[in-house]
Amino acid sequence: MNNTREVEVVVIGAGQAGLAGAYHLRRAGFEAERDFVVLDHSPGPGGAWQFRWPSLTYGKVHGMHALPGMELTDADPARPSAEVIGAYFDRYERTFDLRVRRPVDVRAVREASAGRLLVETSEGDWSARALINATGTWDRPFWPRYPGQETFRGRQLHTAQYPGPEEFAGQRVVVVGGGASGTQHLLEIASYAAATTWVTRRPPVFREGPFDEDAGRAAVALVEERVRQGLPPRSVVSVTGLPLNETIRQGIEDGVLDRQPMFDRITPTGVAWEDGRHVEADVILWATGFRPVIDHLAPLRLRAPGGGIRMEGTHAASDPRVHLVGYGPSASTIGANRAGRAAVRDIRRLLEREPAAA
To answer: CB–CB of 261/204 below 8 Å?
Structure first.
């Protein structure tokens, strides 16, 4: 008995990118549940924001761009960003009647008959003519491997598990990572911890002055070139640098942001370098970023030899039915908005060019 439900488009993920795509589908005349469906594995609205630590208040959020069609206004800057953005996304879904289905886990996307895609989920299967994949990176934290890691007697955790600074009171903390999360963690933890040590693979690049549109376009172009070649996207900070604002300046002046080169191994009681230096630690906090969540697309064999998915605009170069929004150059809130619009424009053209099989 075939219980597969048919729609024109399946949207996977209801973070910024997925909601932007769903909004533009609605504007293009597609109706939720009839023509498209949005599947989200999270327990509630808010995308990855709902999992952020309580001390990340809305006033500390950098670069949060409003979703298309509805501004985020009058938000309390002292309120946790998870609450502010979660409530905003919830209101957005209801305002535009996007009818997000959750929690639904997408297990695989496969080739189906008549040029359609089969989306296998925890709540049954969907057949679609096009796909907007907006699964982001939050569910795939990157944990580097170092010799001796399994011998460490203290606690190791990733940014994805960061509970807030109070939990590190009186402890010696090593923070690994040169991105925005690493610096934010350090600046928060320093006043609670007994000691902090900051290590990164490469010296951090601090950016002075405003990050204007020209700089933004140049950064996006660098990421875009990588995905065009089929290489895995690099982190945002690798192309934008860290903003040298007053908080960062103070952290440098206070010695909190005193970067050390990457250690060579982990010992039972800390981290060590080949030159004989050793730092005692109770906690190693890996602020080492995330990787795209795309394993469910593996049956489609989209990966290029370089390890990433080669892209043309927002769609996979090898399959114009599959759009990755929030991947590579669109992995920012404003980039996701633009990519959602571009993906829907291309999907409309594709569906008009290739009418549904009888």
So the answer is: no
